[in-house]
Amino acid sequence: MIPCKDIQQVVSAYLDRQLASGDLAEVRLHLETCAACRAEERSILQLKETLRTVSMPSIPADLIASIEAETIFKPRWWEAAFLGQRLAPALVGLALGLGAWFYFAHAHHAWRSGPVNVALSPTVSSAPVVAMHRDQEPDLSEKIH
Amino acid sequence: MGMTKTEEFSELLRTYGDMAYRMALHLTRGREDEARDLVQEAFIRIWRYWSFQKPDHFKSWMYRILHNLYLDNRRRAQRRPTVSLDDPAPFGEGLTWEDRFAEPQAQPARVVEIRDLQAQVTYALQRLPAEFRIPVMLCDMEGLSYDDIARIVSCPVGTVRSRIHRGRLQLRHALGHLDEKRMGAETSHEEEHYDSL
């Protein structure tokens, strides 16, 4: 017959149905004839049942929200990098485009708007200023003499 | 049509969130702030790995992540400077660090009176060392098999069996002052269980 101390070492596993079928049968047989081991089995069973009925709190709703904010609602690193990579050249292109537009628009406006009057300092040149339109050829014949 | 990763994760969070939170509370001896951090850290890790690894048994995998994170945090905490045993400990109810390390049979006089059975059981469970507390909790409160528990705590099944038994004995000793009648009232179906084995 198996000693009681050996039976009591495995009574937890017996109650958890974690013994091999052969061992299970031996323990059951012993318990049928041993009041002390039956009392031990009853005591462990009471404890198991008490633990099973202990209620525990549910996960707080704000914790779920916090987890979602850090996971499914947070852009992943490659998404953030990709977004940055797409935006940066777009912004640079936009800036260049605006700059070019302003430059050429100003230049075109100046070209179409009329003669260019350039006021020179008397010390720079004594030659008279020839005012003319852009589509005119300068008539320098009078000036050469 | 299959679910997206976001939908899958959302469903997992809602299905297993309660279990994760309970496990975290048991790991941290009921300290809610630490339990919250542990659960959040675990699910962030699960989210990161979800594209590469979809285990067959999500629940065991989740418990294992929680358990490993708890151990990592505990190792980091042990490297911190020591504290006086008389200092108040971060688990409330006027208990000090000395109380934490007291043997179950040497109940300190300053333990606050706890009224109902469930609170007493929870308190006694939280005072068990982690190597006993976690297997007992996973077996008796979450209904896991010894094999699953062995995978979660990374121990042989024989070690799990021994720890569950020793944990229950310690718990029973700590609860020994309870009225036997109150404990017996919880198990009116003891005969049914015996017959079913």
Termini separation of chain A comes to 143 Å
List low-pLDDT spans of chain A: none
The general outline of chain A is rod-shaped
The pair of chains with the biggest contact is: A-B, 41 and 44 residues
SSE layout and pairings?
The complex is a heterodimer of chains A (145) and B (197).
Chain A (H helix, E strand, L loop, with lengths): L3 H12 L5 H13 L1 H18 L8 H10 L6 H37 L27 H4 L1
Helix pairs in contact in A: 1-3, 2-3
Chain B lengths: L4 H23 L4 H18 L8 H21 L18 H4 L16 H10 L3 H11 L5 H8 L3 H18 L5 H6 L4 H7 L1
Helix pairs in contact in B: 1-2, 1-3, 2-3, 3-7, 6-8, 7-8
Describe the structure.
- The complex is a heterodimer of chains A (about 140) and B (about 200).
- With about 140 residues, chain A is mainly α.
- Chain A is about 65% helix and about 0% strand.
- Chain A has helices spanning about 5-15, 20-35, 35-50, 60-70, 75-115, 140-145.
- Chain A starts with a helix and ends with a helix.
- The mean pLDDT of chain A is about 80.
- Chain B starts with a helix and ends with a helix.
- Chain B has ten helices and no strands.
- In chain B, helix 1 (about 5-25) packs across helix 3 (about 60-80), helix 2 (about 30-50) crosses helix 3 and helix 7 (about 145-155) crosses helix 8.
- Chain B has helices at about 5-25, 30-50, 60-80, 95-100, 115-125, 130-140, 145-155, 155-175, 180-185, 190-195.
- Mean pLDDT of chain B is about 80; it is low at about 90-110 and about 180-195.
- Chain B has about 200 residues and is an all-alpha fold.
- The longest helix of chain B is centred in the first third of the chain and has 23 residues, at about 5-25.
- In chain B, about 65% of the residues lie in helices and about 0% in strands.
- The interface of A and B includes residues 13, 44 and 49 of A.
